[in-house]
Amino acid sequence: MISIYQLKPRFQKLLRPGVRRLAEAGVTANQVTTAAALLSVATGAVIALNPFVSSFLFLLPPVLFLRMALNAVDGMLAREHGLKSPLGQILNELGDVISDAALYLPFALIPGISPVPVVLITVLAIVSEMAGVLGTVIGGSRRYDGPMGKSDRAFVFGLLALILAFGIEAHLWVDVILSVTALLIAVNVVIRVRRGVKEAE
């Protein structure tokens, strides 16, 4: 299935010169991972505390893009510059689910949006990432399969934030989009479990 994640190698190629300079400056992968999580939590807090002020949603698309860049950077620092560590692996996985929750749960507070699909997406995103990580536990690789991975979720919520920030009111159409997103994340879980088990066997 097509996913924005498939564009990651090209994105990494663009970032590589900057990553090299960061490594030379002594920046660690764990510092980048932590910065991405803190940025996400701070942005989510601003939106959650101001759910009736649509202009704050303009923050989300650039923050989501920056978070995606930082996620790529920390991985490249770890793999290509000898900065891998057990703590880094844990921070990377925890940082992703914390950032997802921090950036997406505030949508449940926005007038006109049902909190049910927002919460469902957040829970399923955590389950999806856990399903991916468990591939390594049973002797396979970290799984990123499925049509609604981290980058795809970021695209959906970034686009929704942009539309709402321009003053378009949230109605049933938002709930439909979010419900479809939740369904596709559930598909992620099934695919990752099946392929993880098949790889391990």
UniProtKB/TrEMBL annotation:
Keywords: Membrane, Transmembrane, Transmembrane helix
Domain of life (superkingdom): Bacteria
The keyword Transmembrane appears for this protein: yes
Transmembrane spans: 21-49, 119-141, 153-170, 176-193
Keyword Ion transport: no
Protein name, per record: CDP-alcohol phosphatidyltransferase
Gene source species: Kroppenstedtia guangzhouensis
